């Protein structure tokens, strides 16, 4: 099929509405159009999972057959939805059958080509991983042990996808390159200095990585603006914690970092945003990431200003104890500075 025709079909699928013509061309090159008659089997249980499918037009049902011969419908999907998604995680045997309920046209992508989508359009890969996560949780009690294993695999694959999305975001502005990784590393170092539990430190790592994910929807013009932002532009920037929360709130295994994302611009004295929280009303992870975020911003060149040296930035953070930042967290940060225990990225 000519790529122009395939691109037009991709444009009619919700996943690809915001994708540029150039990126659609790349996706068209790795996707294949297939047609199935009503009642035709598209994928069969126990067959090898090498491909997943996005429905262009039509309707399919996912069926599971048990040992006693009973067949149960696990789900019904139609235009714009995808199925066979376990192929993203591994190439093991299919756990269910997919059958066309009416004449159906799909775009199929191989497990190996998913990595190309990740490289070309990481936002699309992220949306697919988000939907996959929800789908796994909706499967109920069927094959519980297998679902738990799949969720662990999903968390690992999702983290790589998230890193690619964050990297794509930061590449839009060279001043932001590596920012989220550095914030994540410093937040972990502060949490470790404070003696926080391992689970909370792991959450800080992920929250630091994701704290600016809501910036994806902000135009490059604003992100790269060299002059001080005007009020309407700043209002758009201030929306990114809320936008970031909305981006991940349906992903079950990322629920833990919602407060981190939403509260990383709150300030201890209540002067922050988006909710003007005060003191310990701000989730502790948000307080930690807020400090790490500001320190990295101060010690990095930005379009509007040159960076501070580390000593001056530490002095600023300490002066803001009880104003912008939690004194307990400032104390742990100061100890890191005095003992020269900052992550390597800051030296």
What does this entry look like structurally?
The chain is an alpha+beta fold and 347 residues long. It folds into 2 domains: 3-117, Jelly Rolls; 174-346, Hypothetical protein af1432. The chain is built from 14 helices and 8 strands. The chain has helices spanning 3-11, 21-30, 111-120, 122-138, 144-171, 179-193, 198-210, 220-223, 231-237, 240-248, 258-263, 284-298, 310-319, 327-338; strands at 32-36, 41-43, 51-57, 59-65, 71-78, 82-83, 97-100, 104-110. The strands form 2 sheets. A 4-stranded antiparallel β-sheet has the order 1-8-3-6. Helix 3 (111-120) crosses helix 4 (122-138) and helix 7 packs across helix 12. The longest helix is centred in the middle third of the chain and has 28 residues, at 144-171. The radius of gyration is 23 Å and the shape is elongated. The protein starts with a helix and ends in a 9-residue tail after the last helix. The model is unreliable at 139-151 (pLDDT under 50).
Write a concise keyword list for the protein shown above.
347 residues; alpha+beta; Jelly Rolls; Hypothetical protein af1432; 2 domains; four-stranded antiparallel beta sheet; 14 helices; 48% helix; 12% strand; elongated
Secondary structure tally, helices: 14
H-E string: HHEEEEEEEEHHHHHHHHHHHH
Taking pLDDT < 50 over at least 5 consecutive residues as the criterion, the unreliable ranges are 139-151
Largest sheet: 4 strands, antiparallel
Query: Strand percentage, roughly?
Result: 5-15%
Could you say which structural class the secondary elements and strand pairing correspond to? alpha+beta
CATH superfamily of the largest domain, by name, is: Hypothetical protein af1432
């Amino acid at each position: 099929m000519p790529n122009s025709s395939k691109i037009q079909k991709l444009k009619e699928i919700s996943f690809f509405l915001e994708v540029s013509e150039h990126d659609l061309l790349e996706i068209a090159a790795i996707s294949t159009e297939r047609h199935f008659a009503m009642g035709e089997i598209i994928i069969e249980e126990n067959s090898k999972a090498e491909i997943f499918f996005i429905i262009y037009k039509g309707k399919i049902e996912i069926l599971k057959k048990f040992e006693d011969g009973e067949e149960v419908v696990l789900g019904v999907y139609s235009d714009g939805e995808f199925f066979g998604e376990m192929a993203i995680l591994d190439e093991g045997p299919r756990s269910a059958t997919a059958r066309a309920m009416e004449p159906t046209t799909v775009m199929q992508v191989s497990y190996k080509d998913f990595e190309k989508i990740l490289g070309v359009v990481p936002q699309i890969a992220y949306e697919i991983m988000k939907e996959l996560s929800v789908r796994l949780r909706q499967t109920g009690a069927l094959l519980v042990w297998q679902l738990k294993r799949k969720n662990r695999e999903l968390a690992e694959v999702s983290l790589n996808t998230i890193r690619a999305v964050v990297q794509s975001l930061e590449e839009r502005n060279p001043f932001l390159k590596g920012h989220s990784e550095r914030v994540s590393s410093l937040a972990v170092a502060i949490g470790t200095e404070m003696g926080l539990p391992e689970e909370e430190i792991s959450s800080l790592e992920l929250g630091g990585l994701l704290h600016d994910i809501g910036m994806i929807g902000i135009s490059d013009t604003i992100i790269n603006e060299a002059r001080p932002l005007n009020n309407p532009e700043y209002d758009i920037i201030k929306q990114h914690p809320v936008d970031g929360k909305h981006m991940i709130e349906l992903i079950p295994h990322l629920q833990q970092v919602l407060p981190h994302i939403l509260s990383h611009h709150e300030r201890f004295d209540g002067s922050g945003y988006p909710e003007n929280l005060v003191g310990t009303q701000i989730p502790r992870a948000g307080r930690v990431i807020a400090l790490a975020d500001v320190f990295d911003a101060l010690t990095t060149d930005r379009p509007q200003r040159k960076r501070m040296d580390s000593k001056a930035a530490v002095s600023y953070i300490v002066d803001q104890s009880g104003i912008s930042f939690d004194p307990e967290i400032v104390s742990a940060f100061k100890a890191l500075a005095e003992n020269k225990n900052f992550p390597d990225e800051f030296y």
